[in-house]
Structure formats: C-alpha cells, structure tokens
Design a protein that fits this description.
The complex is a heterodimer of chains A (about 325) and B (about 270). Chain A has about 325 residues and is an alpha/beta fold. Chain A has 12 helices and 15 strands. The chains are: A alpha/beta (about 325), B mainly alpha (about 270).
Chain lengths: ~325, ~270
C-alpha cells in the first residue's frame, strides 16, 4: 500500500502567455495527515489543487493520489476523494437536498440515508428544502462541504473551506476535520488564507510562493522554527534599556517610538522573572512583560519576504498561549 | 462508460427543475398558434382587420388559408426557429455548468466525463423530440379546430403525413446538429458562445441556401427537407442526410474530446 495519499512529482504548470503558475512542485502528504497548504494570492495554490483533482493537466510532472496517477480517463479514484475548490457552488434551482441527491448519484453512493446524515451533521436541516440559489454564502459553503463528505472519502482536498462561515461555523468545521482525521484516518489537504485556522488544525504545513514550494515542515518542527521573544514595556524605556545593557543583555526596540523593548536571548526567554528583578532594582519596573512567539502568519510573512515580523500582528491569544 | 445511468438521472432531474426546457417547449408551442392565427386572418382579412388582428394597411403574404399552407408554415417555423430554440436548450445543458461553475464537481467525479456529455446530449435530444411531438399534436389540434370553426380546405392524410414527417425529419436533423452548440458552449464556457454559434449557423444557412449551395451546408439541409424552399427546391439526397449525420457526430466527438482534455479553470 502506498503510504502517500497525495504526491506530486515535479508538477509544473505554464499557462498561455508564458505565465508560470506552478514550478516543479514535489508534495508528499502521508495518509491521515492534515496538511496545511499556504501561500499568498497567486502563489499557485489553486493551480496545484486543480492539478491534484485532474481539472488541469500539468505542463510537466504528474500528480498521484493513493499511488495512482491522476488522469481524466481514470475516474475511479474520485470515489476516495472529496473536494471543495475555491468558492462553493451548487445548482441554484435545486434544493439543498436535491443538490446532495445529485452528488449521491454521481458519486455512486447507494446509501440514501447519507444525505440526511450530512444535512444533520452540517446543520442544514432548516434549509434542506430551500433552493440553493437563495442560500447565504455560509450555508452554501456548508452544502459544498456536505457534498465533499457525502461518500465518506479517504482524502479531502479543500480550498478555503472556511469561506463565508461565521466564527462558530469555522470552529465547527475545524472540529469536524479534526474528528475525521483522528477517528476515520481521513487525510485532509487544506488550503486557507486564515493562517490561525491552519495553525490550529494542520499536522504538517507546506508553503508555496511564486509557484515554488519553499518550505514543508511538521507543525511541531515549525513551532521550533518560530521566533520567540520577551517583550518589555517600561515608563522610562531608555532607563530600562540601560539597566538591561548593564546586566549584559542586548535589548532591541520593538516599535518606532521605542516604547517597547524586546529580548531574544535564550537566558532572557528562560527567566522573565530575572528581567523583572533587574528592572525593578534599576528603578524602571516593567509595565508590560510577555513572552511572544511568532505566529504562523508572522512566519509566513517573513518567509515569503513580503514584510518583517510585525509586533502588531501578534495576536493577544497567541501571547497568552505562549505565556501559559 | 462509468455512471451513464447516474448521469442520465441527474440530467433529467436538473432539466425537470429548470425553467429553460419548459420555456423552449412554450416557444415551440407558439409556432402552431401563430400558424393558426395566420389561417384565420387569411380566411377573412376584412374581419381580421375589424377585430384588430391585422393592421389597416397590412397584407399577409403567407399564402392561402388551407391545410397545405398551414402545414408549410409550421414546418418553416420548425426548420428555422427550431435551430435557435434547440440551441437554447443545448447551450443551457452545457453552458450552465460553466455559468454556475458547477463543472468542477463534474470533472473530479467517479462518473466519467464522457458519461456526463452523452447524458446531456441524450436528455437534450429526448426532450427536443418530445417537444416536437407535442408541437405537431398541438398543430393538428389547432388545424382541426379552425377547420371545424371556419373551414380549412385542402385536408388530406397525405398532405398532413408528408408535411409533418418533413417537419419531424428537419427537427431530428436540427437536434443532431446541436452537438456543435454543445461544443461551443463548452469551449466558450457559458451560454453566449453556443447561442452565438447557432445564430451564425442559421444566418449562413440562409445565405448559402439562397446561393444554391444549401444542399451541401449542414444547417441548410433541414430547411430543404422540411420543404421550406417550396416544391421546386433541390431534393435532398442521401448524401445530404450523411452530411448532417457526419457533422453531428463530429460535433459530439469534439465535445467529448474537449470535456476529456481541456483544462477546467472555471
């Protein structure tokens, strides 16, 4: 049995007009993994996903799902794959239930009860007999997710699955994917611009930029890669900085006004209480002292070289988590 | 071909729920209704003017009020109008998957792409033939009603059978040629390219028929079969029928190939 649910071998896609959308991408997604596929707009995420789904043919290289080469002429593999590509779509004149009936027939699912099960699972009961054309964006997304899950696929390929969902819906869907991966061993390949969501969910992350896969890491390894710093606030930041320098630390300025300092040395990270003691004894007690770990967003921005790490971008929740 | 039965049932469900196939049926129903109206006007133009059916100075050049003229009017409408109305149905069947962006759910699916194309063509053809059956029945009913009310001379089983058989044959040929409409709806990824193609084909059919090359142009041949050009028109040979059949098959092949090979970026 092939150990990879998804594998690409030097996949390259060049569109007319010499646009290189994807350049020699080699992906390996093991069975049961939740793989977060990240990249800025136009990085090649959707093109890669379309190659995986056989919607477009690569200019060079090829993709395999469960060890089987993806080809338009070999549709059997799609029994094992559920997908949602970019924005959710449905037949507007058909009801939610009829749209799922269409999917059930095309997927060759014999069990009619699967429709009611998915309607219930994705909280679509209230809208089951409503035409899809009248659904809100969030409910349309739920319908598309229900369609992707209808045949209990072994692999889910999802492009922006949280699109249009409200915050409760985002959490609900995240827990659903996590449960599918843990209970059924479903492999989830997920592309999303909500990096905090991917951070919470993914067991492995790949970052694509300008068509190239520039990083691929386990989420645990990624945590190790992320920058950690001790943020310090004081009423007299110049005095606080001097005291820290005198104690042998190398504080940096966190912002243009210089109101916040930061320390990156491991001994400062390991003992914030010692830093507090130094500042109190120097007559500049800290007004703010927090360990902050670079978020996935920061890491992503740093990696794609679009901007440096932005203090403002560090979510308070992340600080609290790290501090805890 | 994996999943043809499933694809057929899905296409039937979509066609039943949509307004478009019913609108096409309604459009075809207008042909015998208008034909019947013309018969009433031609039968008594003065009374038609009094009733406001005909403008004071207008003249109707459709011919005389009799069964052969009525059947010819209906056949003309099928041969020329049908090419546009059937194109509406086929461009909806294929183009809607791109307009609604549902094509992405059809291409990465255990039901093969060829099964989906064949199912669409089959449902479109069956629906079109049912419409023609309904329209000819309606035409017969309208003709008989007018005959009973004001009298419509020239009734003969042969005239009816020959005229309606010509209309039905023209319709079947026109339906076959819709595979090209399906192809352009796919290549153009929407409704308009299929319809634009249908309008262009009808336009070219008129021009080439007028120039005497109609028997060689697939979109002119149905009109000739329907006897639109009159009894002295060129007789369509078996070769003409073969031209239509080969064109229809080429259209089907091109559509199948396009769905199988083309990048689906919609």
């Amino acid at each position: 049995m092939n150990e990879f649910a998804v594998a690409t071998f030097g996949v390259t896609k060049r569109y007319r007009g010499d646009v290189l959308a994807v350049d020699r991408v080699d992906l390996r997604v093991a069975r049961g993994e939740i793989y977060g596929f990240l990249g800025p707009n136009g990085a090649g995420k959707s093109t890669t996903i379309r190659v995986l789904l056989g919607m477009i043919a690569p200019t060079a290289g090829h993709a395999e799902l469960f060890g089987e080469r993806v080809r338009a002429e070999a549709p059997a593999v799609w029994r094992r794959v559920g997908h949602l590509v970019e924005s959710a779509t449905a037949y507007p004149e058909l009801t939610v239930r009829e749209n799922l009936e269409v999917a059930r027939r095309l997927q060759g699912v014999g069990d009619r009860a699967s429709i009611e099960r998915l309607i219930d699972q994705l909280s679509l009961g209230e809208y089951a007999d409503r035409r899809a054309g009248t659904l809100s964006l969030g409910n349309l997304q739920r319908l598309a997710l229900a369609r992707a899950l209808l045949h209990e696929p072994e692999l889910l390929i999802l492009d922006e699955p949280a699109n249009g969902l409200d915050p409760a819906g985002v959490i609900e869907v995240r827990e659903l994917f996590r449960e599918l991966a843990q209970r059924r061993g479903t492999t989830v390949f997920i592309s999303s611009h909500i990096l905090a969501e991917v951070d919470r969910l993914a067991t492995r992350i790949g970052i694509i930029h300008r068509g190239r896969l520039i990083e691929e890491l386990d989420s645990e390894a990624l945590k190790g890669h992320r920058d950690v710093r001790l943020e310090i606030g004081a009423r007299e930041s110049a005095a606080a900085e001097a005291a820290l320098r005198q104690a042998g630390f190398l504080p940096g300025r966190r912002d243009a006004q210089g109101a916040f300092l930061e320390l990156r040395e491991p001994r400062a990270i390991a003992a914030p209480d010692e830093i507090a003691r130094i500042l109190v004894e120097a007559g500049s007690p800290p007004t703010h002292l927090a360990l902050a770990r670079e978020t996935l967003e920061d890491h992503f921005m740093r990696l794609t070289a679009q901007t440096g790490v932005a203090t403002e971008a560090v979510a308070p929740a992340t600080r609290a988590e790290v501090a805890a | 071909m994996t999943g043809l039965t499933a694809a057929l049932s899905v296409e039937l469900l979509k066609a039943r729920r949509s307004k478009v196939p019913w609108m096409v049926a309604a459009g075809f129903s207008l042909f015998p209704i208008v034909g019947g109206l013309f018969m009433l006007i031609l039968k008594d133009p003065e009374r038609a003017r009094q009733l406001g059916l005909l403008g004071a100075k207008a003249q109707l050049a459709a011919g005389t009020a009799d069964w052969p003229t009525f059947v010819k009017l209906v056949s003309q409408a099928v041969a020329i109008g049908g090419a546009i109305l059937f194109a509406f149905l086929f461009t909806w069947l294929f183009g809607r998957e791109f307009a609604d962006r549902t094509v992405r759910d059809l291409v990465a699916c255990p039901t093969s792409r060829s099964a989906i194309v064949i199912a669409k063509v089959a449902v479109g053809s069956a629906w079109s033939m049912a419409i023609i059956g309904w329209m000819l029945t309606l035409a017969l009913a309208i003709g008989l009603t007018i005959d009973a009310l004001v009298g419509l001379p020239g009734w003969s089983g042969d005239v009816i059978l020959h005229g309606f058989a010509g209309a039905a044959t023209a319709a079947v040929m026109t339906i076959g040629l819709q595979t090209l409409t399906a192809f352009f709806a796919g290549v153009g990824r929407g409704y308009l390219p299929g319809l634009a193609w249908a309008v262009l084909a009808v336009f070219l059919a008129q021009i080439l028929a007028a120039l005497g090359w109609g028997a060689w142009f697939p979109w002119s041949i149905p009109a000739l079969v329907a006897g639109v050009a009159g009894p002295d028109a060129e007789v369509v040979s078996a070769g003409g029928v073969a031209i239509v059949a080969v064109t229809a098959l080429l259209g089907l092949g091109a559509t199948l190939l396009w769905w199988q090979r083309a990048d689906q970026t919609g």
